[in-house]
Design a protein that fits this description.
Elements: E1 11-14, E2 21-25, E3 47-51, H1 68-81, E4 87-92, H2 94-105, E5 110-116, H3 130-136, H4 141-152, H5 174-185, E6 200-205, H6 214-222, E7 227-231, H7 238-241, H8 243-256
Length: 262
């Protein structure tokens, strides 16, 4: 699928084509593979849609000044091209930042919004601590991967870093990864969040050091009538590690809020 500015996006769908649509938006520097462990849990009720962000997966092209607002415009384009009149949207980490802009700029396309382990960005956001920033800035890619693994999962998680699809797309170039980092770091949806009209569920793990949980409260206060749910002990990948609890919560929100889907 080609965007209006000529960038070729790779789009994936799953589930039954006649079911309501759920758009899943992954984190920074990740492709649709981010959702591999979680996606099947939604496909009994929804047709799932993902796409690889610019610079990830099979969406490769010219490097430019990418932003969460641009990725949100790409998401809207995907829905329109798939003839989806309205969709539920579930964004995690940077995907939640993209989802904020999508819901604010294209309210007619978003009927329900779920924001997990994300931030409003800008000067109001609660940033990760200096120890975390230093650990993530190490040059050794294996050491950085181990750090990410500890930030995403608790010690009870039985899988090692090699089994995770949340720790970054290994096919990205250094420049592509830096462009994603800038897009996430420059995100600021503070002024547009009060204009989000879709019913919104905000989820976060209480032990998230990557994106501190205080950001969930900020978003929930900013988005009208948002519902806030914190997962005790969860880290940045809580939505995957505790999917047996979190996915039913999301499904309940997406289906019970709309009588036509119960």
């Amino acid at each position: 699928m080609t965007t209006p500015d000529g960038f070729a996006l790779s789009v994936q769908t799953g589930g039954r084509p006649d079911d309501p649509t759920l758009l899943l938006l992954p984190g920074q520097a990740n492709s649709h593979a981010w959702w591999d462990r979680v996606r099947p849990g939604f496909e009994s009720r929804f047709r799932t849609v993902t796409f690889d962000y610019r610079g990830t997966g099979a969406s490769r092209g010219p490097l430019d000044a990418w932003s969460t607002a641009l990725f949100a415009a790409d998401a809207a384009h995907v829905l329109v091209q798939l003839d989806v009149p309205t969709a539920s949207v579930y964004g995690a980490s940077m995907g939640g930042r993209v989802a904020q802009h999508l819901a604010a700029a294209h309210p007619h396309l978003v009927d329900h919004l779920v924001l997990a382990c994300t931030s409003p960005g800008g000067p109001h956001a609660r940033e990760r601590g200096p120890d975390v920033r230093r650990a993530l800035a190490v040059a050794d890619p294996e050491a950085r991967r181990e750090t990410l693994h500890r930030l995403f999962y608790t010690h009870a998680w039985p899988h090692g870093p090699g089994a995770s699809t949340l720790l970054g797309d290994p096919t990205m170039s250094r420049d592509e990864a830096r462009a994603h980092l800038r897009a996430s770091a420059d995100h600021d949806a503070w002024d547009v969040l009060p204009g989000v009209s879709a019913p919104t569920l905000v989820l976060h793990g209480t032990d998230d050091l990557m994106v501190p949980a205080d950001n969930a409260d900020l978003i929930a206060q900013r988005v009208p009538d948002a519902v806030l749910r914190l997962h005790q002990g969860g880290r940045h990948g809580f939505f995957e590690e505790f999917a047996e609890t979190v996915t039913p919560q999301v499904l309940s929100f997406l289906t019970q809020q709309d009588g036509a889907r119960t």
